[in-house]
Amino acid sequence: MDTTPTDFSHLFEQLGLDSSEAAIGRFIDSHRLLSGQAIWQASFWNAAQAEFLREALESDDNWSELVDALTARLRS
Predict the structure, then answer these.
(1) How far is 37 from 14, CA to CA, in rounded Å?
(2) Domain spanning 8-75 has what CATH number?
(3) Contact yes or no for 36/75 (Cβ under 8 A)
(4) How far apart are the C-alpha atoms of 49 and 20, rounded to whole Å?
(5) SS3 of 67, please?
């Protein structure tokens, strides 16, 4: 059984970003996805981050629900 933690703080850690609640809030407030843009296509990710996000969604792994949730937050 995979026990990988799956919450925004762990997702941000996986992406190499500040994972504090305040930093996550600032990130979401200051970044937006364009209409129809896949999350991994956004210009604010580096190549490794984009690849992780793409693979998480394509493999439908434990991270995919969080990536979907982050996508929704970046569109609102």
Answers:
(1) 22
(2) 1.10.10.1130
(3) no
(4) 18
(5) helix
Distance CA 25, CA 73 (A): 10
H helical segments located in 1-76: 8-14, 21-30, 47-59, 64-75
Range 15-30 average pLDDT: 97
pTM confidence score: 0.89
Q: Which amino acid is it at 37?
A: Q
Domain spans, the chain: 8-75
State both tokens at 50. 């984009």
- For residues 26 and 36, give the distance between their C-alpha atoms in angstroms, rounded to a whole number: 23
